[in-house]
Amino acid sequence: MKLASLRNGRPDGHLIIVSRDLTRFASAGRIASNLQDALDDWSRCAPILKAVSDQLNNREISGMVFNPEEALAPLPRAYQWIDGSGYMTHLERVRSLKGSKDAELQQERPLMYQGGSDSFIAPRSPIVVPSDDLAVDYEAEVVVVTGHVPMRPTREEAANSIRLIGICNDVSLRRLVVDDLQNGFGFFHAKPATSFAPVFATPEELSDYWWNSRLNLKVRISVNDNLYGQPDAGKDVRFDFVDLIVAAAQTRELGIGTIIGSGTVANAHDDILPLKRDGIGFGCIAEARTVEKIRIGKARTPFLKEGDRIRIEAIDRNGRSVFGAMDQQITLLGK
Amino acid sequence: MKLASLRNGRPDGHLIIVSRDLTRFASAGRIASNLQDALDDWSRCAPILKAVSDQLNNREISGMVFNPEEALAPLPRAYQWIDGSGYMTHLERVRSLKGSKDAELQQERPLMYQGGSDSFIAPRSPIVVPSDDLAVDYEAEVVVVTGHVPMRPTREEAANSIRLIGICNDVSLRRLVVDDLQNGFGFFHAKPATSFAPVFATPEELSDYWWNSRLNLKVRISVNDNLYGQPDAGKDVRFDFVDLIVAAAQTRELGIGTIIGSGTVANAHDDILPLKRDGIGFGCIAEARTVEKIRIGKARTPFLKEGDRIRIEAIDRNGRSVFGAMDQQITLLGK
Lengths: 335, 335
Known about the structure:
Chains A, B: Keywords: Hydrolase. The first copy, chain A, has helices at residues 35-40, 42-57, 88-98, 103-108, 155-160, 174-183, 241-248, 285-296, and strands at residues 2-6, 14-18, 24-27, 64-65, 81-84, 112-114, 127-129, 136-137, 140-146, 162-169, 172-173, 195-196, 200-201, 210-211, 214-215, 218-223, 226-229, 259-264, 309-315, 326-332. By secondary structure, the first copy, chain A, is α+β, with helices and mostly antiparallel strands. Chain A has two domains: 1-72, no CATH class; 76-332, Fumarylacetoacetate hydrolase, domain 2.
């Protein structure tokens, strides 16, 4: 099934079940007041939500028209958001930029940082930044939402904890990255609020697109309608979601509704922008600039500026959007 | 007023109003189902909660006996937990340990890191660690809980956003700190779940103990009934809570119920342990060990081990506990 949260004036929104083709929805208000409530009581709620989802997909109930403009992030706020480093290609490309030191170590175990989870950005809301000279970048990522995970879980416990899958844009202010890391306490100001695509899907909904704790879908990114990337999230995975969950829980339990991010999806290639129709491209601009420096001697793709429109969605082999699209404009604070 | 959350089998517990002397409580179940719900609707809930609090303190209602063993953390889970560095003495004492680089920078603006907020430890529950050879340490801190804070707030907006005040133990695994920082992404494994004292208090409840966005109370720490510290949280403050909130919101809004920590409370002095009755002592063991190295050539206070009991509470000028005590045993995972 696919779940989303509609704007209703409350911080957590109104939980809905969305049809597989993302055109229609049914309210889940009688089952759980919001997605966190459903996750908190998943063994009771999931079968009932699934039954409604089946009816909706079989057109036994017609539902209402789903308008992604009305969607909040599927979890509009969460109790935990941990972002990992699943794709080595991303780390290799941005390593010099980030000034991180230990390449070998990063191959052995995933890096992770704790992100702000108090207010995620809705899929069609503007990305508000205090200034656009902070090297505003997108990072296209896959995420999973977990149930409770005990400290030091087995791989099986980790795999079984995955409740929902989606995609996000881990908006990054590159100019503040070095500063954050030099402070020695890690990412903070460089990682403002994160955006999410309109729906989360259960593993079984994704059938063979979810396999071996990884998402076998292309994540397509365009900026102002120019294709910037369409890397395959199922390829070049160094750490899958079981690896990431196990690593995250080494000194702590993970509470219900914890969101774990894959890190920027990245495939190995040496494309540069503008991208050919079948090019692979980049899950973030920083990578595009690194490859440009190597191939043509200078970085030429600019970071995002006020008014730029960034669109990110995961596409199946028939070209259909699986989680719906983030389609957002960069906006300056106070404008 | 003073608020707490009682264990009820649900992740957020049952909201209660606790009498000033911490002996009795009244249920707030008819006003809000839990503390986050009350914060989400604070302008409606706060006056009603305050009225019950007044009745309880005036003995117009007798209430029930408050047992801190039954208390969860006042916010058992939160959407955001940001820990700052309000006290320079702490940073100076642990700087070599943490390998952070820029002392001057740290005087200009507070360091901060994002902590895990998905499951806080109840005030009398054990502190479960995967192993006690990780240099388990306590960090006694003051916290505030905010309402919504816009990005780049004025100092007045920041001050007015403070809803509740409390204390916590930002449990730290020192042996993992260097590792986390070398990874370059910041604290993660070194900062497992945080403990909280049983109640949060509103600013007006604290009268002159809350002044100028700082808490003028001693925070008393003992390990196995030996006094380890009683630093004054109102002294040697480099960054007060308004500074910390303003700094935290430079590139993001802060959602309702964000918890901001002061960093380890630390006063300048050159006491060593065992502490004299009027000694000041230390908000964490790492500081005690640093001063020992300087004064007697070697660190002799051990980090916490399995079975150690750590007690932390804030004490007013009449010796009364203001938020109740954390009183917790270090326990190994699986035991």
